[in-house]
Amino acid sequence: MNAAMFNIFRYCSRLRYLLLCRQCLISVFLLCILVYATFRVKLSNDYKNAQVFYKTQQSICNNNLNQNQNRTKIILFWTKLFKRKADENYINNYFFTSSGRCGTNQCRVTNNRDELCASDAIIFHARGPINMNDMPTKRLPHQRYVLLIKEPPYKTTAIVGHLNYFFNWTATYRTDSDINYQYFYWRRKAKPTNETSQKSYLKNRQARAASMISNCYSQSNREGYLQRLNSIIPVTHVGYCSGTKCHKSREICLSQLAETHPFYLSFENSLCRDYATEKYANVIINNQMIPIIFSQTPNLYIPNSYIDANQFSSPEALGQFLRQLTLNTTMYDSYFKWKDEYDLIIPGPDDYLCDLCKKLNNPNEPYKVYDSMKKWLYNDAKCQRWVSKLNKTIDIPVDESMDYEEPWF
Ligand SMILES: *[C@@H]1O[C@H](CO)[C@@H](O)[C@H](O)[C@H]1NC(C)=O
Ligand SMILES: *[C@@H]1O[C@H](CO)[C@@H](O)[C@H](O)[C@H]1NC(C)=O
Ligand SMILES: *[C@@H]1O[C@H](CO)[C@@H](O)[C@H](O)[C@H]1NC(C)=O
Ligand SMILES: *[C@@H]1O[C@H](CO)[C@@H](O)[C@H](O)[C@H]1NC(C)=O
Ligand SMILES: *[C@@H]1O[C@H](CO)[C@@H](O)[C@H](O)[C@H]1NC(C)=O
């Protein structure tokens, strides 16, 4: 009797906790909605504010600006670069000395906002982040506001697309940026060499393609494409999405894959104009596999160094072509001949500062301002997605590209 009572009592108290819990779940749920709504309102206020922000800025820096054209130009980092501050000592010592990487001491970088009025360029990194509550309130007409970003549009915080009449220059991977911030570029050798003529690259490898991917659901839907390609030739995935991570250095991982794979899939997570990254460059440096790209702008890549999936009617057609290539050494090897004629150049992560410094010291640089960032950053990027049932790419609506925001919590 006692035991049964006790059990009933225990059951009831558990029920009570459950009921209590339901109330607390509902409260948490309502709280979430409230917080979400508050942030949405704040965000849309920010966007409105951003579009007319330039009207609130004042030019009231009166501290006897040094007008001498020859004075050292000051470059101020207004934001961080992702989570960290720019290393001003390192940059000033290794870039901006007469014998330094930029070959000039005519510039200096700083993180110190007290130097705002004395600055010639102010850098905003799009994932700094840029925060409308934390903007310079003073602005002088000769100052250049520079947008710095190496990410594709959907990873560029949406606030940037609302900052009209704000930026004077852009430093991005896009070739129409004012300042060169590309992942790589190439140039013709002054004197062609003959080093590839005696080499054979295929080495009995069977038709297989390798990939290293950490972003499992890409904006370009490369995973959909690769799934179809896999029906013709085996596609090996290494990385976060397949649960088979390679823990060694990138160079060693690539070389290991190259032992059994004659092709490497250098598809980007975003299929946007000019977006070409180290996914291609690393394979070119490794020099053992042919990179397969999917691109709107193939002229960014070294001629005859790649296969462009965009030139094939379907993944199956590409797969058949890759099979053919592995049956003909002469044809396969022809994709490595570029090395006799071209050089691949990979700029250092801070090399854009040399370009910026040069422009700041050029008195003939014209005034310039980006009136609509939305147009430049999103419309002009022309991002696309591959649609499996159509065998082709379609345009992604601009608003969909803009939706990305920093996590709120
Ligand atoms: C700036 O430097 C150039 C070349 O060094 C020199 O010719 C010119 O006189 C200088 N201008 C001023 C205002 O100091
Ligand atoms: C390169 O080597 C091949 C074969 O050894 C030779 O026929 C050709 O003339 C050479 N080309 C140049 C530019 O040296
Ligand atoms: C390999 O391809 C080359 C160039 O397209 C061609 O001339 C040659 O006949 C092919 N060889 C074989 C064995 O099919
Ligand atoms: C930079 O942009 C601002 C804002 O639109 C503009 O007022 C200023 O004239 C521009 N300055 C230069 C040097 O281009
Ligand atoms: C896409 O390509 C596949 C394989 O070549 C073909 O079977 C299919 O009919 C194609 N679809 C369209 C819509 O062209």
Explain the overall architecture.
Belongs to the glycosyltransferase 10 family. Residues 71-183 form the Fucosyltransferase N-terminal domain. It is found in: Golgi apparatus membrane; Golgi apparatus, Golgi stack membrane. This protein has 409 residues and is of the alpha/beta class. The protein has 3 domains: 2-51; 73-182 and 350-381 and 397-401; 187-345, 3-Layer(aba) Sandwich (Rossmann fold). The chain is built from 10 helices and 15 strands. The strands form 4 sheets. Strands 2-1-3-4-5-6 form a 6-stranded parallel β-sheet. The chain has a 5-stranded parallel β-sheet with strand order 9-8-10-11-12, sandwiched between helices. A two-stranded antiparallel ribbon has the order 7-13. The two termini are 52 Å apart. Residues 54, 141-142, 144, 165, 168, 367-369 line the site of one 2-acetamido-2-deoxy-beta-D-glucopyranose.
Question: Tags for this entry?
Answer:
five-stranded parallel sheet; binds 2-acetamido-2-deoxy-beta-D-glucopyranose; 15 strands; 10 helices; Rossmann fold; 409 residues; alpha/beta; globular; six-stranded parallel sheet
Give a quick summary of the entry.
The chain has ten helices and 15 strands. The chain has helices spanning 2-51, 88-94, 222-229, 250-258, 278-286, 315-325, 329-333, 352-360, 373-379, 398-402; strands at 73-77, 107-110, 121-125, 144-149, 169-172, 179-180, 185-188, 209-212, 235-238, 263-265, 290-293, 307-308, 342-345, 384-387, 392-395. It binds 2-acetamido-2-deoxy-beta-D-glucopyranose (5 copies).
